[in-house]
Amino acid sequence: METKKIAKGISIICQPTFIPIALYFIVSLSVVPTVTGFWYALLGIVFIALAPIALVFILAHCNMISDPDLPDRRERFIPYLSIVGLYLIGFIVFWYLGAPYQILAITASYIAVTFFGAFISLFWKISMHMAGVAGPVTALVFLVNPLFVWAYILLIPIGWARYILQKHTFPQIVIGSGFSILLTYLVIRFFS
């Protein structure tokens, strides 16, 4: 019982929607260490974290999905595509404001990972929790400092938690991480 409580706590703390808060602050302030960087961070948080959280809770409140955690892969497609729409709006705003390529790259990475995650969910369930941490860590490694490679260690307790809670199988955990790392790396290479 205690093991499941710990796993649930890890799973809640490492929600994919919370990770962009740290990511946008770190990237924005490292590439634009001014008030402008702070505003970029806030915009990223609004479009990549807060708006998706609000959308999912609205869908749950309207009984369009059964659980905000989206455990049923058959319920993931429409919410994920809707979230991609929010990310696209954020990308357009950043583009219009002339944001640095690093901010455009992390936003485009969120678009790519969530878009592909939506289509994968039509056939198979992958861990978007793992994708939501693995991609941002990859962005930090390639856009901010290679020493962020140590943050990949976070994938171990998150994967363990998702497995213990029986939310995902081992292959779903590995594929969720792997495809996010690969897509994020490719998007960053495209923008740099």
Largest sheet: none
Shape: globular
Poorly predicted segments: none
Share of residues in strands: under 5%
What structural class do helix, strand and pairing data support? mainly alpha
| SS elements, strand count | 0
Q: What are the salient characteristics of this protein?
A:
single chain; mainly alpha; 8 helices; 192 residues
Description:
- The protein is mostly helical and 192 residues long.
- The protein has one domain (2-191).
- Helix content is 73%, strand content 0%.
- The chain contains eight helices and no strands.
- The termini are far apart.
In summary, what is this structure?
With 192 residues, the protein is mostly helical.
Strand-helix topology:
Blueprint: H1 2-13, H2 19-31, H3 35-61, H4 77-97, H5 101-120, H6 128-143, H7 155-164, H8 170-191
